[in-house]
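Hey, resending since the last one bounced:
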Amino acid sequence: MEQERVPVLVVGGGYAGLSAAMLLAWREVPVMLVERHPSTSIQPKAFGVGPRAVELLRPVPGVEEALSGIWAGIGDDMRIAIAKSLADPEPHMIMTSEDEDMSFLSEVTPVAQIGAPQAEIERVLRHAAEELGADLRFSTELCSLDQDEDGVTARIRTGGGGEERLVRADYVVAADGYRSPLRHALGVPTSGKGELGQTCSIMFDADLGGLVREREVTLWYLQNDAFTGVIVTGTGVGAHVLGVNLAEGQTEADFTDERCVELVRIATGRPDLDVRVLDRTTFGLAHILADTYRAGRVFFAGDAAHTMPPTGGQGGSTALQDGADLAWRLWLVVTGQAGPGFLDTYDAERRPIGALTADAHLANLGVRMPPAARVGYPEPLADPTGALIGHRYHSTAILDEPGDDGSIMEDPRVPNGRPGSRAPHVVLDWEGQRISTIDLFGSGFVLMADRQGGHAWMDAGRLAKERLGVQLTRLLVGDELRDVEGCWRDRYGVNGDGAVLVRPDGYVAWRTPSMVDDPLATLEQVLRTVLSR
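The structure tokens again:
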């Protein structure tokens, strides 16, 4: 049987798999992705991309612009309500754009939230990945996988009963969904509330004029005598989506075209509405957390790592961040910049964030349920903004400062630049062009220092880069980069002769507020520790 060779094999062509493949290809790491479906999703599925995910995707030329273009064609308001139907004269509004003030985002990040359906976003990611040279194989399934000390051997099959071949890879990204055959095959235990129900997603075309005017990009929780579910209008794909929760005893077979049309008419409150069913699929509502994100050379991402209810809107963004996170870590190891033990930091850093986000979504679901049904559910987050863009990491790839409280969330409105935190957004002037510090991160490590006393750090960075063979960019703030608002030192917590080391994912790995006796020896030791060398 023919065998192919690739450093990284990605299983699954959703958010996590596509972001991993795209960003690996951007870093010139050969990657193969296999997906059993014939294409990316045609269902809108998840809606929107959070700013942190956009920050990780934007280094790839054209991606942020393409996503912004989709959003520009949809709208900029978000309303959530509980109602009997779209024609309900007195819907109970539980969130409007005024209720959740996100104006602070412009002060902490150069990007904005993208309100686009998953189907459109997946197409953007697929196109970018293929343009960069990623080998994406749709209508291709993983049949088996075996690991040994040196790598992984996968057997894949094209089409229904088509040709089989072997793929030899160093590592595998398991982004194969919440049922994750790989997770089951490798015996990875899970925790959480488990299965919470099934939903039939009906994508339909209908003229909802007069019902959704001034309500674009809106989520309605429907509660009536016929069913409970949700309807999303104005998804930007020329269609709307109705999700109906399956009652006990119901199966997917009960949702014939005729029944789907009837349900749409009930949901809209228009018994004579002309409806065309475009697609329907059934998916599980669940709260399932993998107890480890690593099984040998296999790494779990997206729903395979953390399945969460959709009540919170960050499931898709979390999956995108998983894929992006694995891409830069695998790049460092595959290219020899980091030791194999460095990959343990993926589980250490991302699993607490996955659990935090999934629990927050479960808590939101509980709020919208009768009191008796939400027993044992977690409480909603007091300040959800921290979960949006204020995550903190702790692992051997972060050199925590003495007295660190070990928190995994902080208020993004009060950036402090401590290790384990996302490097703060600061506006800089670079040869007359305004940029953000966020624009400096992505392709490798970045060593930043102030011009006043930073030349010793720049010299140390040059030598450390040569000795260790690490991709490291050295930047003096106040030299070619001018601190427009005069806040860089304060936000990064350094004095005139201190330094900060930022990872490719834009997280602070280490800092020293002031000069040390031997900058080169210090920096070399920091890099060796961070990279598990």
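The first strand starts at residue 3 and ends at 11.

Sorry for the duplicate.
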